[in-house]
Amino acid sequence: MKCFSRYLPYIFRPPNTILSSSCHTEADIISTVEFNHTGELLATGDKGGRVVIFQREQESKNQVHRRGEYNVYSTFQSHEPEFDYLKSLEIEEKINKIRWLPQQNAAYFLLSTNDKTVKLWKVSERDKRPEGYNLKDEEGRLRDPSTITTLRVPVLRPMDLMVEATPRRVFANAHTYHINSISVNSDYETYMSADDLRINLWNFEITNQSFNIVDIKPANMEELTEVITAAEFHPHHCNTFVYSSSKGTIRLCDMRASALCDRHTKFFEEPEDPSNRSFFSEIISSISDVKFSHSGRYIMTRDYLTVKVWDLNMENRPIETYQVHDYLRSKLCSLYENDCIFDKFECVWNGSDSVIMTGSYNNFFRMFDRNTKRDVTLEASRENSKPRAILKPRKVCVGGKRRKDEISVDSLDFSKKILHTAWHPSENIIAVAATNNLYIFQDKVN
Amino acid sequence: MEVQKEAQRIMTLSVWKMYHSRMQRGGLRLHRSLQLSLVMRSARELYLSAKVEAPELEMPLPAGHSPDPRLHPPREAEPTAQVAPPDGEPPSPEPMDTQEAPRAQETFARCSPRPAKASRKRRSSSLNGSGDAGLVPSKKARLEEAEEAPSEIPERLQPPPAQAEGAFPNLARVLQRRFSGLLNCNPAAPPTAPPACEAKPACRPADNMLNVLVRAVVAF
């Protein structure tokens, strides 16, 4: 298991925060983190509807130890609070998900979504500007035509780099329920958006129509037993996608089979272990995230206490199950009281699909090496912020004698939770969102 | 008994959470509401099974009284907590709600406990006898309750009219009318702390409430 060190204690804090490190405004809480396909850019979305994009610095011979530092590249307000007048409901501006499109020209494109509306943003650089207009002066004011005696050709001159983000498409009014996932298809022409009961397929060019490909809303809402919790397209097969449910099941659908994919092609479910049955079994079995491996061979699911890896060719049980924080199993009642049992943790693969990572409480996050079967618990905290420090593995003491460096279950801070993490597509660089702070760690071997 | 108390505590807590989830930005979350209803169902099953296992702890039922475990003679008149089936409700603009509204009304009629005003007199003399009469509230009494109940709900528990409608108007009204009494038990409790009102006679019997609540939750 490689050790992760802090090469740079990069902690993101919005510039308008004047509170101390222990306080923050609700709007600053990071709600999604995503690397782009090359890993050059890292996007974060927050509860205030803002998107902040970081760009990795180019390597330089002069500052080898600062190689690969991520700096703020662009910040923009993606979504604003809205009001649904028909239902008298406020629509939160919180960014639920960001997904990058593969780069096809000099500009970058990403999708960002709140509960109801998906937007396609174009992020482009401008490092030249035209000068020498005839009808305008240098400040842009119109000149009196009678004062113009000569004509000149405007020329492009270099300027300070400016990064601008413009909304190119707005995909609205297609979801009755709250959007939980978006996923870009491998054809790069379509994407899907999923809410609690329906999944819609969009074409990037068309904003006033979408195809409904999954609809699990029962005719009688009293018979509702499960909702869709996450959905993702297969990384290579543009006809295949999966969606997870609140009952702990995963359905794989093939869009070639029918227009409405209500009947799944594959159904992944693990029989419940009777010894683990408890009062809150149904809640903790709800899947909060589903991710295809980069190879497309496996899917990973996260429920409240475990991460599971499934082989697409075997539906009756996962091939691997990892306990994230099993010591919480006896605390479910308290976690229900403080609402923590409803937390939706995400999970990520590393570039080679050999390591998986997910978050926990007390600003802990866990990594599991699938090959060596070793796991490690690390902490994202300011105390680990010394440059070139190595992150020390942490351990939770479940009972009996607590060793010196261990922390007991009752001392865990449940307000500090790591729900969102991201892994660079090819290198061992990880981004961990801890409430309103973003930590970026890199493997010291690199 | 412990199990019963714990189950009731969890049911009460769940009701509280359901009520407060209405107030949060973005409106009711379907997934969260479903999870809360699942917990309430499990708590109800646990409560009922614990009750069946410990019959000697139950109050002796009067002769002729219905053996239905859901029936409990209310110990105190609590008009705010009584049922007020949405008789005069306007049809909801949401297509899914128009389908559910008549069903919800049926459900309320089935599980409805005695109306407040008409039964106050009756209750003191009817502990031993007319349990069945309580199953069929008079229309007149229902209408009186419907007028009475909103005024008795404290100001702070009444959401602004715009918010009370929202995406799930039936559920909103059910919660507002039925559980304001329950929520009154512990007005100062933070949302995360379970209101401890099992000891107070003003609290509604769990079964009736839960039956309706579970259906109401799913019915939106």
TrEMBL record, chain A:
It comes from the Eukaryota. The gene is PPP2R2B. The keyword rRNA processing does not apply. Keywords: Repeat, WD repeat. InterPro entries: PP2A_PR55 (IPR000009), PP2A_PR55_CS (IPR018067), WD40/YVTN_repeat-like_dom_sf (IPR015943), WD40_repeat_dom_sf (IPR036322), WD40_rpt (IPR001680). SUPFAM superfamilies: WD40 repeat-like. This is Serine/threonine-protein phosphatase 2A 55 kDa regulatory subunit B. The keyword Acyltransferase does not apply. Belongs to the phosphatase 2A regulatory subunit B family. Pfam families: WD40.
Automatic annotation (TrEMBL), chain B:
This is Immediate early response gene 2 protein. InterPro entries: IER (IPR008653). Belongs to the IER family. It comes from Echinops telfairi. Residues 59-165 are annotated as: Disordered. It holds the Pfam family IER. Residues 67-78 have a biased composition (Basic and acidic residues).
